[in-house]
Amino acid sequence: MKYELTCINCPMGCRITADYDGKEVTNIQGFTCARGKAYAQTEITDPTRMVTALVGAAGTHAPLSVKTQSPIRKPLIFDALQEIRKTVVNPPVHIGDVVIADVCGSGVNVIATENIE
Amino acid sequence: MKNVYDVIIIGGGVVGCAVARELARYRTKTLLLEKTNDICNGQSKANTAILHGGYDAKPGTLKAKFNVLGNAMFDRIHEELEVPVQWNTSLVVSFSKEGHPALERLLDQGIQNGCRGELRIIDEQELRRREPNVGSTACEALLVGSGGIVCPYELTEAYAENAAMNGAQFLRNAGVTNLRRLPNGHWQVISTVGTFETRAVVNAAGVYSDVFNNMVSERKVHIHPRRGEYYIVDKKYHNMFHAAMFQLPTKMGKGVLVAPTVDGTVLIGPTAEDIEDKEDKQTTAEGLAKALQEASRTWENIPTRAFITTFSGLRSTGDTGDFILGEPEDAPLFFNCCAVESPGLTSSPAIAKWISEQIAGKLELKENPDFNPIRKAIPKFREMTAAEREAAIAANPDFGKVVCRCETVTEAEIREAIRRPVGALDIDGIKRRTRAGMGRCQAGFCTPRTVEILAEELGISPLEVTKFGGGSRLLEGYLFEEGKNHA
Amino acid sequence: MRKTDILIIGGGPAGLAAAVGAYEAGARDILILDREERLGGILKQCIHNGFGLHTFKEELTGPEYAQRFIEKVLEYQIPYQTETMVIDVSPEKVATCVSRQKGLERIEAKAIILCMGCRERPRGSLGTPGERCPGIFTAGTAQRFTNLEGLMPGKEVVILGSGDIGLIMARRMTFLGAKVHACVELMPYSSGLKRNIVQCLDDFGIPLLLSHTVVDIHGREHLTGVTVAEVGPDLKPIPGTEKYFPCDTLLLSVGLIPENELSEMAGVKIAPTTSGAEVDEQLQTSVPGIFSAGNVLHVHDLVDFVSEEAMKAGANAFRYVQGTLSKGGRKVPVQMGFGVGGIVPQFVSENAEDKVSFMFRPRNVYRNAKVIVELNGEQIYSKKSMILAPGEMVNLSLPPEKLAGLKTADSILVRIEVPEA
């Protein structure tokens, strides 16, 4: 399958094209530096994203901000968001506290990014 | 006895509210019905905010008469109602020597109309000495000493508050749908909030005043809304011009105005476009471009980066070209304030006085010895001295919380704007009463805080807070119901 | 009158770093004033990640980044006062502020650091025709509603402007269940980071309409839609290209304006190219003892550079208080040559002692161009870049030895040189 993507490493935003058959990325073109090539490789085979989101906090409308402790696989984003959205924490919560362990079986925890007392 | 009002006023614009106040000088039971969520919500809030000297209207017209009479009443209004008024003069600038005869005609008209104060043609030298920033083609001007500027919102609010203090009742979101003559000679007023009986009706319904006249009288009136588009320029430029700078009308058009406002910004506009729809207050690309182009004769190189906002207003232009005031022959005790377009703001106190005298005569109203003409403005933190500020915060700590950073409006002022008689019910109402949100950032900073205060004061959810009533809610919903999820 | 050595106005990223910088330079009498309930400024609502790579070598969210500095402030026991609005600053360095708790206070400082940040350009300043209905928010106001107050502005969204806040809000609104129909950008390029274009728009199939703008706003009681049209090279809408997008929310990300009302009250000269204070390489403004740093000085892309700049301002403010800040002698103006916009500093002292950093925004997109600094007609710096773009500030440093020529120079020139076609 043909892939077309924009490199995010610098403002050049190189348009990179490549082929991927599910096993191997071939014919990578359009990059201008090694970082671009590597980006294309991972972005095609195993794209990941940090997810930052909001969870409810008991007794208030004001949400608590959270993030995945490390990037999760891109196709998991919306599943993870759904799980995050169902979560309500009980204050106090502090930066780094685990809010959801192993979100959607990703192996990644969702942790608090702010303190609420 | 049945619950009968002496007077029901339709419309809470500057004229309706002025009439309510004037009537409060008599022992009356007055009710004002306003269709929208707030008073001062139609042409009274979107106009040039000028106190016209009275040179512009044709001698012998009601416009000429009430303009000059009204103009003379504003020192007293300023004193009694603490409404910001500045007598900064008006200049009607000619950009061509050929305009001289037209200036002479205006001068002559002004003299005939009885304009008070200085009224004379000034040459280019004097014009440039007074207004060094006037455009390079300006060559002479009519100086109108009795020209001034006023805050149209505060004027309307002050009339209303003072009327309410003296016993007048106000209902908002109360649209009148029909008027009927009862067998006893009274009027039945059918509205969206109920049916009322009254001895007299005042029709101050602005662009809709034709509708009410035509319900009760065969002397038909037609109001066609005339839209005017405006710009507001940052207060950084408030010293560009001292006077309200009119352009001498020519074959090419009436010209647009460049005028300082009492709040320190500069107003540019209006265009004049006849439209059909009485609710169409959009700004248009063409209209805005036209206003700018015409204004650039007065103000060359207008700093377009300094625009704070644009808006449009509808003038209630009637087909006679003059105000239509008083009782139609075939509808006794129905008092028109129809087709009150410019100079309606300036004329408002005089119209109100005349109308209420008419009503008092017909209904044989007695004077109200308890009438208190004094209304105190909401204390403006931005205008206080350091000592006054200190005292204000000591008395009410909410003065220590600045909510609108651009205009330095405090929480105390916002709360008072809501708590006053005929107080604010929505974000725009707070804006007009306190200037919170009218500054440079156009409410980007204060909106979340104003929403919170409104919700708290009115005992509603932030989700129910509106910009101007009806369906104009700001926010769609909560993300989390106090810690419960949406699931 | 209350007195302090160093008064910092604003407790956002710049103010916090300025306090830390001043403390670490030796200052012990510092006061931070902030108008909000909590320190951290705009970072409180920037819950996305991408902050701190330069400063902490890890990617943090806004609140986490702010907390690192707040903890320093707490550790150093630097006094701060929240819910306090400064309403005046005099050239004599007396600040007047108000708060519920303490009323009106006048605070006399030996040095002041202006860290007030910036505000968003509103709809009114664009002159976009149409209705004035609810449903139109600046991106930052909407961000505050969602991220801090848990309130949702709407469900069907169009974004005008492709600045980073707009892009970030496109993703946030998508995450919160809204449908973002388009991101509309007047210019033929986006001023946002490529990463944000990919991860906030492309990831969710949100179209980026370059060379387009909103030409009409519809909806009397509430926003119901916007008309978008393509613009020509003159940035004027092209008739016939109009397209209607139904939406209940229009978010504006059309520029930031440094908030310099207090600076102007203090008599600080404002540079038209940055809308921030004119400063020398020590970040001192035209008023001796008043310094400026962060987005109030010029709008940054990266909070890391805000912190770095503010720490320097803090340290210099302390030197000023101590009387050890280099007087620097004559101020040599910095000229902006081809392609250079909004440079900071605007002046370099002829006796500059430390390295001198320049930051500026390229005026356009330039490929394979060189950034050149010239002193007395001689190139003292030259660096080639594959790409320069308005969305990415150029940050360059010159060691003092390169600047010996300043003594005899009338000006110092920074310019971009593009390869000949």
Q: How would you portray this structure in words?
A:
The complex is a heterotrimer of chains A (117), B (487) and C (421). Chain A is elongated, with a radius of gyration of 18 Å. In chain A, the strands form 3 sheets. In chain A, strands 8-5-6-10-9 form a 5-stranded mixed sheet. With 117 residues, chain A is of the alpha+beta class. Chain A has helices at 34-45, 77-85, and strands spanning 2-6, 15-20, 25-29, 48-49, 52-57, 60-68, 72-73, 88-89, 98-100, 110-112. Chain B has 3 domains: 4-44 and 153-223 and 321-363, FAD/NAD(P)-binding domain; 86-149 and 224-317, D-Amino Acid Oxidase, subunit A, domain 2 (D-Amino Acid Oxidase, Chain A, domain 2); 381-464, Arc Repressor Mutant, subunit A, CATH 1.10.10. Chain B is 29% helix and 22% strand. Chain B is globular, with a radius of gyration of 23 Å. Chain B has helices at 14-23, 62-71, 74-81, 100-113, 124-130, 152-165, 209-216, 285-295, 344-363, 386-395, 411-419, 427-434, 447-458, and strands at 4-10, 30-33, 50-51, 85-86, 90-94, 119-123, 140-144, 148-150, 169-171, 176-181, 187-191, 194-203, 223-233, 244-247, 257-260, 266-269, 273-274, 307-318, 324-326, 334-338, 402-404, 409-410, 477-478. In chain B, strands 1, 2, 9, 10, 11, 12, 19 and 20 form an 8-stranded mixed sheet that branches. In chain B, strands 13, 15, 16, 17 and 18 form a 5-stranded antiparallel sheet that branches. In chain B, strands 6-7-5-14 form a 4-stranded mixed sheet. Chain B is α+β, with helices and mostly antiparallel strands and 487 residues long. Chain B has 13 helices and 23 strands. The mean pLDDT of chain B is 95. Chain C is built from 8 helices and 30 strands. In chain C, strand 13 (179-185), helix 6 and strand 14 form a beta-alpha-beta unit. The longest helix of chain C has 20 residues, at 303-322. The model of chain C has no long low-confidence stretch (mean pLDDT 95). Classes of the chains: A alpha+beta (117), B alpha+beta (487), C alpha/beta (421). Strand 23 (477-478) of chain B pairs antiparallel with strand 11 of chain C, so a sheet runs across the interface.
